[in-house]
Amino acid sequence: MTIAAKVIFFDIGATLATVIPGDTPGSIKGFALLDWTLAMLDAALRSGARLGIISNTGDFPGSMITPLLDEAGIKGFFEPDLLIYSKDVGHTKDTPTIFRLAAARTGCADDEHACLFVGEDGAERQTAATAGLRSLAPPVFDFSEAS
């Protein structure tokens, strides 16, 4: 069964990976993938959807985060234009703006079932819903159902 969503966005922290702190305060050394991450991303790709990220990255721009995704072995799952980092876009996941911006980048913003957000935080999933995205909590291995 294929997903109705055309694009699936994932959060990073506690959804795909945990942050490995760097040697200096406030720095990031890398990401440690969660046990389910590769299977979940494989399932998402098999659904036929395009994949992206929506993540609150604090003071870290995409130019710092994306190479860490590459080192973790998951950058290749995601379309470069669908990597939405709060530092780069000036919005966080506590308002619908970042989710609307992400949907607009897909070219599917007018289709209410086009985008799905997978994230561990219930408040962020609710904010995504306010912006018109469906959402699921991880881990997800069957993308045929979304609230």
TrEMBL record:
Question: What InterPro entries does its record include?
Answer: HAD-like_sf, HAD_sf
Q: What is this protein called?
A: Uncharacterized protein
Q: What Pfam families does the entry give?
A: Hydrolase (PF00702)
